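Page 37, top half.
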Amino acid sequence: MVALFDLGTRMVQDAMAAAARNAPTGDARERLKAGTRAFLSALADHPEFAQTLLVEIIGAGPRAAQRRDQILQAFADVVDAENASAARRGLIGRFVSPHDPFAIVGAITELVSRQVRLGVPEDVLDLAPVIDRLILGLLPPAES
């Protein structure tokens, strides 16, 4: 189970990294949106990984739970690093709390997990604007 979880995680991370490389570097909001869409598209393209990453891992025992916690923190660290980089360049405001990136990852995880389990909404890509509002809503205005 953990090996499949790690494989699915790498697939999602690779898709998000490719989206970040191809997104315009001067537009932090578009880079965030590109990452969101890459994440959701990877899950839509590989529903078997989505099931493992978001649902089955929860009940797979303490080792799997520990690995899940590590991965969620790694995703939060990436969100935080992207925000810090864009904030240093004056493109976007810096998160107010060091917990904001993890709150974003946790909310996204639960939204997408609900979609995988219940099919709500029917298409996981319909969550993109919700996730965008969630992320952008936690950002203060860029400092001038």
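Page 37, bottom half:
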Amino acid sequence: MPDPPVARNAREQASAKLGPGLEARVLEPSPPAVDDGEWYADDPTDPTGARADVISPVSSGTTTWSEYVDEHPELADYAAEHWLGAHRRLQPVPANFAAERADFHRVGFHVLSTVREQANGKIALRYTHRGFGTPFYGNDEQLRVEGTQLVHQQAGSVRSEPITTLNAAASFAGIAYDPGKAERFDSPPPVDGDQPLEVSEQTAAGLGDWFGFAYSVLEELRLNGGPEHDVGRVQLWAEHFDPAVELGSADAGQRASYGASPGDDAHPEPYLYVGAWGEIDRANPFWNDEAFNGGAMSYDELLAADDQPQAALDYFRTGFAILTGD
């Protein structure tokens, strides 16, 4: 059985793993809560303000985690577990993944995103260790899914309970389940609040790995964009349940969403995608998906790649180059 949830400060805990004179950057949200009027969330990989050399999951730091682990192999398991470096390989999804993915999605959309929306008007979520959750808000508060547990952390204290039904999850979070919220968004059909949810540790682990993998690649992709590309933040959109970042000039017809879906009605397994905001040339084989205005890389293709993170990054960079000419 996994260890019970504890209060976490991902950046602080990662920094404690490093040698003296080093500071960590991570992929997960970390306190303190941010009240900036736009994102209401920290930028986890930003090295700005560091007081020491930065060990980062992306190449904007002094050294990457993968490079650091090469010299400090005792940290390889920790780095891999948190998708910071020394990446382990993605595996085939477990049985019943699609049905259980939908129920995890419902918890994220109806419970986690509602709590965040009530706090600061935002609905986007983030990758967190073994799952997904809100950025920190209010009094260093976070609601997250960790494995099959719903976890509420506030000011260094933590409580948790197993995921059972939407009514129970909403009650734990201090809100009421509102099935009507689904009418405002392209989200899974609502279910009865007392209907037992299908969740398992196997699907939770698969989702956590997919989101961690996606964040490790998409945060690196952000570095491809300059000021002219209006680079967004990597966010896990609660309505679609996919991590994505927006890059490119909308005025020039170059903007797109670059993302990693865990699957949907048209795609039973996870896939990478580039969703163009403007017109695309369907004669170009890159634009191969008929379910939306863009292209997709299948999970099978990603699983077969020798270097899965590099294959994903190359795929996104290809789409970026097609759209922007850069």
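Margin note: The mean pLDDT is 96.
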